Amino acid sequence: MYEEECEEPFDQEPAPEIETSSCLGALLNGGSGCTPNFVPGGPHFKNKFCDNCRAPDNFILVPLDRARALSASQAACFVNKRSKGFWNPAPESLGGGQCRIINNTAGCIGPWLAIFRFQPPELQW
User: Fold this and answer.
1) How far is Cα of residue 107 from the mean position of the Cα atoms in its chain?
2) Does residue 55 register a pLDDT over 50?
């Protein structure tokens, strides 16, 4: 059985970020449905998404095969860094790659979720 461990610090550099002067939703949906000529605003993460992506009746679709629910011990190994852009380095001890942790704020219900930029590592999630 796989035993999770957090060993390495999170100061490793991620791969270069693709264009982020547009909506961050475009990083997940390829820009489909994003507000044309959107300019990100303010320091809050939500302000990096266009009005179309933030609309209550709209959703950002993510391929299910790129999403993983994290156990409490796995969640302790992941971190989103504001200075690193949308994608953050996943810990090498958990297979590496680039991901974004969602469902991780105080008001969220359920486990933290890791959305991977590419295919997630082969682990027992």
Assistant:
1) 18
2) yes
